[in-house]
Give the backbone structure.
Amino acid sequence: MESKIRIGLLVDYLESEYSDSLIKGVSTFCKTKGISLYIFFVGEIKNVDTTFNYQYVAAASFITQNNLDGVVITSGGQFHSFTKEEFVSYLKKYFSLPLVNISSQLPQIPSLVVDCKDAFSELIKFLIEKQHCRRFGLMGVKSNSAEVIERTNIFKEVLQSYNIPLSSVVFWEEDFSYTKAYLAVEKYYQKQKSLDLDAIVCLNDDMAFGCMDFCNQNNISVPKEVIVTGFDDSERAAFFSPTLTSVNQSLQLQGYKAGESVFSLIQGFDVPIVQEVKANTVLRQSCEKYNVSDFYPSDNLTNEVNVSNDSSYKEIIAEWFLRRSQLYYAASIYADIQNDMQLDSFRGGLNNVFLSFGIKAAAVVMYEAPIKEKERFEYFSLPQNAYLISYFDAEMNVFSDSQERPIEFNPKNHILPPNCISETPDGLIVIALFHRQLQLGYIVVRRGNLDRAVYGLIAKSISAQLDSVFAFSKIRREQELISNRAVQLDLIAHTDELTGLKNRRGLIELGQASLNLSESMQMSGLVIYADMDGLKRINDRYGHEAGDTAIIAQSKILKKNFRSMDILARIAGDEFALVCPGLNIKTFESIKKSIEKDCIEWKEKNNSPFAVSISLGYVEYPHKNVGYSITPLLAEADSNLYFEKRRKKELQNN
């Protein structure tokens, strides 16, 4: 039975451990009250990078009174490009709903903030007093985020209180990423010919891991030669080698209290405009240059230096985290490869894809037509027509039938049609499906034990396939137009009289039109030249009527094995040619084997005194020299056919 109350949680990146901890906190509260949770993955709303990640923002379009009773916003990651005033202005669209914010304090919106000042100050003091650090590097971030600014200012204030000049500090401003931190330290090391620092203080754990990996790979001992500290206390921090000192922000507690607060607002109760959660620093091996076992300056420092003595275990866990990230990005790139696919076959396999990952419930929605967003946007206008093409809920024992028509509905009214997926306090994740500039639809997935990075990976894979479905449909529509035009061309002698196929003139016109369409869609394909083996021998021995019979058989075999969208023509005698958009070499090789089989079956079925054999040569397009031009492509395919026929003769002679 569905819950009466629905809470939405807006997060930037699912693969972030920061987001994962907040999700767990909100979900834990939702379970205590039987509240349904929706998780909207939106990336950075005001995205300024050169990718198409701004398209993720489309998922925020479902944050409406039709779908939700209240919303928890995680604002920290949005301030890298938004100012606080700009972000509040953006949120005004959602002011009709009870809102609670996690991270920085926002005017007019109840906010959960973490007090990191004491914990971070004590950490820097500890490095100065007990680890005797004087030469620092701060791995910071160029951002408008109040958190980033606060951490940087705390760092500077503590150093100045110990009379350590800021001129001696190396300040890096990167982007919170492992790779950028690694490269920044590498560049500094190459310039200085050494890493002449006592400590590198990083404003998140990923940057700390990048710094530590650089040190490990260049035989710089952490912490004996340089101390490295992080911020966030991610899961990996306790298993890295050496284990990482970090600041724990009690993220799950923040998430829990945010869920509790938005629930109170929904019930009509007031909540404090600001609620504060205390952070604490966890000391581990990465700052143990000198013995710290007897040092506890305050409650903000917790000694966890000897979290594990099993170094091999830690290395295995650390390697898993690294490989997980590598797998995610590698698979994301692979998912961009497009394969032509019809909608019915695509729909039929979707539920199996989700089930193979252990997902218990999922739905895929495609828009009536792709929506092109040429410019970056902060709000996405949902279309009125969409189609639920696949859905299942294993717990409800509900599965869509790929043979039935997709369910049409208006996504402006509801995220999904009723009774396809049950809601849950664990959370339903909503992710936009897009390919480059095109918004294609969205998926809704029940959150489970799956590694969080995989949800994004699945969305990328489905997006690439869905884009192919739309492209394939467009080709079919364009192909129908071309076919209609072919009817007119037939009236002026574009049809081969013997076979009923296009003649050479028809091939040149229609083939070039098909190639032009492929070029406009940046699609590849094959141009194929086909020739019968031994037609002269058939004519000489059995007569020209038998030769015509062989040519007709050849045309039927070719037509049977190629698609209706392919342009097939008889261009002279026993010579045929094809333009095949989207066809790849692997499929072509399979078609060749099928043609050989059909030739044998034709002789047996017709009790023919002669056999039919067909050789095929091909060329891929776009060609590096001639691109999408039909005439030189045909010439190249004809040349390649010559080598195929010679290969066959050599096999027969042997």
In short: The first helix runs from residue 17 to 33. Confidence is low (pLDDT under 50) at residues 294-298, 305-310, 332-340.
